[in-house]
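Deliverable D2.4 — example input (structure tokens):
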């Protein structure tokens, strides 16, 4: 069946739905959802059912650029000047250590295997240098998605975000050097090393200048326009403008978006917080599309035996280099134990930049033979095939690292906690309950030691709730103390209009309270409707705020102790 004429909107809708289902299934298996997105892409893409071909992927390339731009923008939002003033030296040492170690080990292994197979020293060294420089790149998208999925916060999270933000810049510099030297070794030098580095400098410097300028513009717009509903329009407009100009001018797309986010967060650290929250909520379906298309592009067939040997050497050398380099760099920089032990696990993923560099190398070295294939095709096949593996292994390794470091769930919002807890977790089981004919004077004595502001009135026999008495109604009796001797609960109660079971999700219960305009609801047993306690909106909000504050203080304490 020919799927090439499927309408774009139908394709996008099917991809978002299929990716979301795959992500949810993998979440249920306690595997990061991004793996599910990629697997669904592999199934429908070039290595699976071929429902999505190159023509479709090329037509939807702007969506990939938008996803990378959003990722870069949100990463830039984490690059606060205060963080770099405090940890900048540490970040630089770790970055150079892990990037250069991965390049040296992966490049050395692939060069050695190539020499054993061909006996050609020049070609072997050239191929090793190219693959080594590409190995230094780390894909930020999959790594950052896991950090956001598990709401991580702490020094390891901060370091990971900084390293993946800077890694691509290092990879571009290393590739410029390696490709120029490789061209000289192979006798096909089209440009000098200085010219190659100059082009890279223009590409990166131009991206930074573009992002900073756009950040200044977005900050002015957000500051002047107080209608938060329009902020999303300006965010998307400025971001797509930056991405479009970066693509047209052949600048680094991710770096430009990161510069935009970093400029905004440093100009207005408090005011921009909501801006980044809006962007993050908008980004989710774009992420699903991006990772499904990443999986659809992956090709794992077509490699011969020697190519598989090179691919294995590349992925093993790169993984070992990332892990060992991160460990050594963290030790030299005096970083915390969490960074030393777990940072390397967060740097395995590679995708966009690595594949882009491989394609550039394929075009530049397409005429150079390497056994039965040309060097350009070999580089593209090796990087693409190994990307499939590390994109599947990388996210679970990130989850393992942040879990072992104790940083999962420390960046939760109040809304996250509401959805993660049940009514039974926060109900006040000690809130007094009174029989229908309890005297007000007796009730006043019992509530003296209670923090509750609402009190259930229950049937003596069944203990089912008949209504609620509020502290405000009881206060009205204080004007005449004698009233308390003859007024009873039945005279003051408000008839029961809402109750909730302890198994109910807290977010649903709070929404019911707000919709009904109530301050409290009795909590009753699901089967027998017996009174179990009181859920008060004021106390619930206070508890949730205190828990969010506690987790963030815990994360900030871990960072301060680094």
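Example output (designed residues):
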């Amino acid at each position: 069946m020919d799927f090439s004429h499927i309408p774009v909107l139908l394709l996008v809708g099917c991809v978002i739905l299929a990716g979301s289902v795959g992500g949810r299934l993998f979440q249920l298996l306690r595997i990061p959802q991004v793996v599910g997105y990629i697997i669904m892409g592999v199934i429908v893409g070039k290595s699976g059912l071929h429902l999505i071909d190159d023509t479709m992927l090329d037509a939807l390339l702007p969506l990939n650029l938008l996803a990378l731009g959003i990722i870069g923008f949100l990463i830039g939002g984490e690059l606060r000047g205060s963080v770099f003033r405090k940890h900048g030296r540490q970040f630089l040492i770790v970055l150079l250590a892990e990037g250069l170690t991965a390049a040296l080990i992966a490049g050395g292994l692939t060069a050695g295997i190539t020499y054993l197979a061909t006996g050609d020293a020049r070609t072997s060294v050239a191929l090793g240098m190219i693959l080594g420089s590409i190995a230094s790149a780390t894909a930020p998208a999959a790594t950052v998605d896991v950090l956001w999925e598990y709401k991580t916060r702490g020094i390891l999270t901060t370091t990971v975000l900084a390293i993946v933000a800077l890694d691509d810049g290092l990879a571009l510099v290393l590739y410029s050097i390696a490709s120029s030297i490789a061209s000289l070794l192979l006798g096909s030098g089209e440009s000098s090393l200085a010219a190659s580095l100059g082009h890279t400098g223009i590409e990166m410097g131009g991206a930074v200048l573009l992002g900073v300028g756009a950040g200044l513009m977005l900050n002015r717009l957000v500051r002047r326009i107080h209608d938060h509903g329009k902020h999303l329009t300006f965010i998307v407009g400025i971001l797509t403008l930056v991405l479009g100009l970066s693509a047209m001018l052949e600048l680094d797309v991710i770096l430009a978006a990161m510069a935009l986010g970093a400029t905004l967060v440093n100009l207005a650290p408090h005011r921009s917080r909501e801006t980044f929250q809006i962007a993050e909520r908008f980004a989710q379906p774009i992420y699903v599309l991006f990772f499904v298309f990443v999986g659809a592009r992956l090709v794992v067939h077509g490699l011969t035996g020697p190519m598989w040997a090179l691919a294995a050497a590349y992925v093993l050398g790169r993984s070992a280099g990332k892990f060992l380099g991160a460990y050594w760099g963290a030790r030299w920089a005096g970083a915390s134990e969490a960074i030393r032990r777990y940072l390397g696990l967060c740097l395995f993923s590679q995708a966009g930049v690595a594949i882009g560099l491989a394609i550039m190398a394929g075009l530049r070295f397409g005429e150079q033979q390497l056994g039965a294939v040309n060097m350009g095709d070999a580089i593209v096949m090796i990087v693409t095939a190994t990307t499939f593996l590390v994109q599947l292994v990388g996210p679970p390794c990130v989850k393992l690292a942040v879990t072992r470091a104790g940083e999962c769930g420390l960046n939760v919002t109040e809304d996250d906690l509401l959805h993660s807890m049940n009514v039974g977790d926060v109900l006040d089981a000690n809130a007094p309950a009174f029989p229908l004919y309890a005297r007000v004077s007796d009730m006043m004595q019992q509530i003296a030691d209670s923090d509750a502001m609402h009190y259930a009135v229950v049937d003596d026999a069944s203990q089912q709730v008949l209504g609620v008495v509020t502290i405000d109604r009881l206060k009205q009796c204080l004007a005449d103390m004698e009233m308390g001797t003859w007024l009873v609960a039945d005279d003051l109660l408000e008839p029961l209009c809402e109750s909730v079971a302890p198994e109910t999700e807290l977010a649903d219960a709070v929404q019911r309270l707000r919709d009904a305009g109530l301050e409290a609801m009795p909590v009753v047993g699901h089967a027998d409707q017996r009174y179990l306690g009181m859920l008060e909106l004021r106390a619930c909000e206070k508890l949730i705020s205190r828990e969010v504050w506690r987790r963030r203080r815990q994360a900030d304490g871990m960072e301060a102790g680094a």
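The CA atoms of residues 305 and 311 lie 10 Å apart.
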